[in-house]
Amino acid sequence: MRRARRSSFEEHFMSKASEPKDKGVKRRDFLKILGASGAAVGTIGCSPEKAGKLIPYLVSPDQTVPGVSTYYATTCRECAAGCGVIAETRDGRTLKLDGNPAHPLNRGAICARGQSALQGLYNPDRLRTPMIRKNGAWQAASWDDALALVSQKLGEAKSRNTAADAVFLNQHESGSFGVFVDQWLAAFGMKPHLSVDFEADQAAM
């Protein structure tokens, strides 16, 4: 009996050893590798250095519901056209811009430039501080220093009565923003701003 058991035991493992080994990748192993590769690709660019912290409202406005989007009708300023857009915001952050169907100019359409306007808010390569030219090179400055410098230069121009010789160039402004700019310039003795369509040359080509 013991010898028979030993023979069956040996036959079992000898038969396994004599089976030809599969040189390919088994289906289960292939799925494991595929899953690991997908996880690795999905985590590319998720380094801790790029992680940020979203700080919610300390005191939420009365009309704001946490997690619920709020929509505002506004004007796109990416070019002189001034298309009407709808801005979707949530918890104080703008998420998306869509064309305003009720606007007579674009009638709900919006170009790629308007869609990418949010890059000015969230692009990691955007300018995050004012830049002041020093010794022929641009240097980052604080908002307090930049505003103090602008106020100083405008005050000097006003005291010397040279502000009237200055020209304020800007793109075409729609709505009441142009009136606000002219009133601000008049406070320093400057002429109304001049509108220049910087896109006209490209559109004519």
What features would you describe in this structure?
The chain contains 7 helices and 7 strands. With 205 residues, it is of the alpha+beta class. Among the domains are: 70-122, N-terminal domain of TfIIb; 129-159, no CATH class; 161-198, no CATH class. The strands form 3 sheets. Strands 1-2-3 form a 3-stranded antiparallel beta sheet, with no helix packed on it. The protein has a two-stranded antiparallel ribbon with strand order 4-5. The protein is extended and about 85 Å long.
Residues in helix, %: 25-40%
Number of helices: 7
CATH superfamily of the domain at 70-122: ADC-like domains
The CATH architecture of the domain at 70-122: Single Sheet
* Alpha-carbon Rg, integer: 33 Å
Q: What letter string, H or E per element, gives the SSE order? A: HHEEEHHEEHEHEH
Mean pLDDT: 76
Sheet having the most strands = 3 strands, antiparallel
Oligomer status: single chain
* Distance from first to last alpha carbon: 99 Å
Poorly predicted residue ranges:
none
- Could you name the CATH class of the domain at 70-122? Mainly Beta
